Amino acid sequence: MKKRMLLAATTSLLIAAPVFADTAVETGAAPMQATKSPTATEGGINFNMKGISVNLGGFIEAAGMYRSRNLNSDLPSPFQKLPLANSAGYYQDETRFSARQSRLSLLATGDVNENTHLAGYYEMDFLGAASTANSNESNSYNPRIRHLYTTVDWDRAGLHLLAGQTWSLVTMNGEGIIPRKEITPLGIDAQYVPGFTWARQPQFRIVKDWDKKYWLGLSVENGQTLVQGGQPNAVGNNLADNQAGGGALTNVTTSVNPYPDFVVKAAADPGWGHFEVYDLIRVFETSLSSNGKVNNTFRATSAVGGGMILPIIPKQLSLQVSGIYGKGIGRYGSSQLPDVTQNAAGENMPLTGSQLLAGATYDPTKEWNFYAYYGQEQVDRQSYDQNGKGYGYGSELYDNSGAGTFGGKAQGNIRKVAQETVGTWWKFYQGRMGKMQAGLQFSHTEDDYFSVVNGGAPKATDNMVFTSLRYYWQ
Length: 474
Prior knowledge:
Mean pLDDT: 87
Radius of gyration: 23 Å
Strand order of the largest sheet: 2-4-5-6-7-8-9-12-13-14-15-18-19-22-23-24
Strand content: over 45%
Largest sheet: 16 strands, antiparallel, barrel
Low-confidence stretches: 1-41
Keywords: Signal
CATH architecture: Beta Barrel
Number of strands: 24
Signal peptide: 1-21
Number of domains: 1
Helix content: under 10%
């Protein structure tokens, strides 16, 4: 009876949590471990209710951003949409201020007994954009839910169950395979860094640990397909792509997903550093009409990824590297390059790609943190031609002849997105009233296009500067 009451009380806390507005991107909750949410021992406001521990965390942020090209964007930077000289944004700077990355969180935990532990976590921010909400990477429908999930941990068996919306299992962890201990870039830009592999979506996950040193997890996650061709192309003929949503998905587009995405991950914490490897398995559907019927075909893909964190100087200097290679991985990258393209017949053809992120963080004192990252995302060419017309992704027959002239034609596709990022956080107040910190970030981003016969291989660049002032309550 007591067990039932405890579970009901935990669920009630989650249901009663305030619901707020929300859009499609993220950034870390704290600069030192960006995604590690406050817990009862790490700040936030704590109280107990009928044996359940509750923590209210979050921060208020005033952010500023300057971009040398106008992206018409808030804090999330659309890295794959840097303007070429044929569009007005190329000739315009962009300066904006925003408080929408401010965040609220609620963590409720309870122990059924010394072996079984329950938890529920809710986190939201204000980066909502109803007209562009989608399932592509962060399931950013309105109101914007960043995280909403429950967990059950059985210590004796070393088993851990998670159900709800949170980081995909492809996101690198800082310790084991433990929720709220993922590692994200420490910057201010809410779209992180190109090369960072992640998603935040509904899932069911089961994890087994051996002495908290070795971990094995399986996650079944929400699917979605990003499709892109060029011009002329067959996009629109495939009935599995870009469908108009209905019901709770009205006014958004979605893809037909016959199966969820599957992720299997193994991780190790041998005593120095953290190491992990995983496999991402996806299935893409093609639906083409013929003779008054719709014929469906399926293509399964696999991609291998992994990462490591090396504490070169414990608690001061850490190096990290992560990456993934395989087919159909575009939606899991910060740059949102496509998963598939279409051939001349309109079939979805998975694209081979890679994502790589390398970074370093340095904490010389408790007040200062410095970071630097290099990241890139790349897609291989997969082109087709029929009767002298180009199809697919990266076709040499596309026309980029006007890429350097305002109003000119630029049909080509992006081959690679790359970025160098440096920044710092200064925690100038840490005391019983909470914590205040200021941040400064600079990044240089490049979009490199495939070479084509008419117009060569154009390149788009953007220099961005971000500032942040955050107050964390404790």
